[in-house]
Design goal:
Elements lengths: L10 H22 L3 H4 L10 H24 L9 H12 L3 H20 L9 E3 L5 E3 L2 H16 L11 H17 L6 E5 L12 E5 L1 H8 L20
Parallel strand pairs: 3-4
Antiparallel strand pairs: 1-2
Length: 240
């Protein structure tokens, strides 16, 4: 049997695919560690059980596979027909029997990875459109998935922590979030200080958010409520 390998030859893309595959494996290990009863428990996301998180991550893989198909075939295939359809899909998915939900997560991830593996160099620069309406090259789907699997493994709230996430992922995530705040002209009152990575300090406001990189990312992504220097809580601006 001949071993299959990525058709893409770009070393940067190879490294990005390695990171997303590590994250996918980590997410799966977190899911595998959950009993069926555990799946019914709450996640770190308000209003979502762990079932919702697993369903979301599974359907996200299917949606990103549709973007790969779009780039490969030239036939426009949106991630979702509408945001309402996306929400309804997750709600239905969360009600599936546990075995079916686990199969969804595993099978969808494998299908996406195979689609990436079989995508040649010339296709990766093809423009596709995200669910938020952004036009991006297909390479962006790798980061979109990276963010999903690493963050949502933590959201399962079963032992995984942001401190376990690779710093390169946390750095890019914080850069993405603060970049979006700038585009939306949000957070002008803030000064975000990352104590263990000063290159990521952001803002010139009076309200100082101070912490190490995992703590600041947790706050910026809306997972935790960081404290200001005066000890008062301050919610992060919305980013997604």
């Amino acid at each position: 049997m001949v071993a299959r390998h990525d058709l893409a030859t770009d070393p940067v893309l190879h490294e990005q695919l390695l990171v997303v595959r590590r994250g996918t494996a980590w997410f799966r290990r977190q899911v595998d560690a959950l009993t069926d009863r555990d799946l019914d428990g709450p996640s770190l996301l308000p209003g979502w059980s762990r079932r919702h998180v697993v369903a979301h991550v599974g359907y996200n893989a299917r949606a990103l596979t549709r973007l790969v198909d779009w780039a490969t075939s030239g036939v426009e295939t949106p991630m979702y027909s509408s945001l309402d359809e996306r929400t309804e899909e997750i709600e239905r998915g969360a009600t599936q029997p546990s075995r079916a939900l686990r199969h969804l997560n595993e099978h969808a991830a494998i299908t996406l990875d195979v689609a990436w593996r079989d995508t040649p160099d010339a296709v990766w620069s093809t423009l596709v459109r995200t669910a938020q309406g952004r036009t991006v090259p297909l390479t962006e789907t790798v980061w979109m998935r990276t963010r999903e699997v690493w963050m949502h493994a933590v959201d399962l709230d079963h032992g995984a922590a942001l401190a376990d996430v690779p710093r390169r992922v946390l750095r890019r995530l914080l850069t993405d979030i603060t970049g979006l705040w700038e585009r939306k002209e949000a957070g002008a009152e803030l000064r975000v200080v990352v104590t263990d990575d000063h290159t990521l300090d952001w803002g010139t406001g009076e309200a100082r958010i101070v912490g190490n990189l995992p703590a600041v990312v947790g706050w910026a992504a809306g997972r935790t409520n960081a404290l200001l220097d005066d000890g008062q809580g301050h919610a992060a601006p919305r980013w997604l």
